[in-house]
Design goal:
By secondary structure, the chain is of the alpha+beta class. It has a single domain, classed as Heat Shock Protein 90, CATH 3.30.565.10. The chain is 27% helix and 24% strand. It has a 6-stranded mixed β-sheet, with helices on one face. β4 and β5 form a beta hairpin. It starts with 6 loop residues before the first strand and ends in a 33-residue tail after the last strand.
């Protein structure tokens, strides 16, 4: 029997420009690992748009979670943030520059949507169909991956000169070994 168990990957991050690039690479690597190479470009493009929206618009903070779910023949990618305001598609006649990313997601993906969350945040998601040639492989395990991208570690204070004033003294005495014999 050919089966495709559920697969899941979660990435938690601050939606800052360097992190967005990292998540795009993580999504690409995860899809490559799942043998879904045909979905890499559209998924990476759409997740970049969603994370850019969080970076540009989300309040009170830029914390968010990206989830990638593969269930049977459908890949769904969602971005959850803490901002209760729902995104809107651009009005093509109004010439607005806001909402064009969502229009791009709507054009590239099979479906997309927004869900309000009980905690006041929201989830914006898109889905892509798995091509038949990628769906045909036999999978034997249920993959679950979680990645947390933390802020860079704070810079260490400079070392004091005093730490280097005394040269190290090496013990050059011969090494004695006793081997039972």
């Amino acid at each position: 029997m050919i089966s495709r168990p559920n697969k899941h990957c979660t990435v938690e991050l601050q939606a800052l420009p360097p992190r967005i690039g990292q998540v795009r690479r993580i999504v690409s690597a995860q899809l490559r690992y799942w043998n879904l190479d045909p979905l890499i470009d559209p998924a990476a493009l759409c997740v970049t748009e969603l994370l850019t929206n969080v970076h540009q618009h989300a309040e009170p903070d830029k914390r968010c979670t990206v989830e990638i779910d593969l269930v049977l023949d459908r890949l769904t990618v969602s971005v959850r943030d803490h901002d209760p305001r729902l995104p809107r598609l651009a009005d093509a006649d109004a010439g607005s520059t806001h909402g064009r990313g969502l229009a791009l997601i709507a054009a590239v993906s099979d479906s997309w949507g927004v869900q309000e969350r009980h905690d006041g945040g929201k989830v914006v998601w898109f889905s892509l169909p798995v091509p038949e040639r990628a769906a045909g492989g036999r999978q034997t395990r249920d993959d679950r991956t979680t990645v947390t991208l933390e802020q860079p570690a704070p810079a260490l204070p400079p070392l004091e000169e005093a730490a280097f004033e005394q040269p190290a003294v090496l013990d050059r005495s011969p090494v004695r070994s006793t081997v039972p014999g």
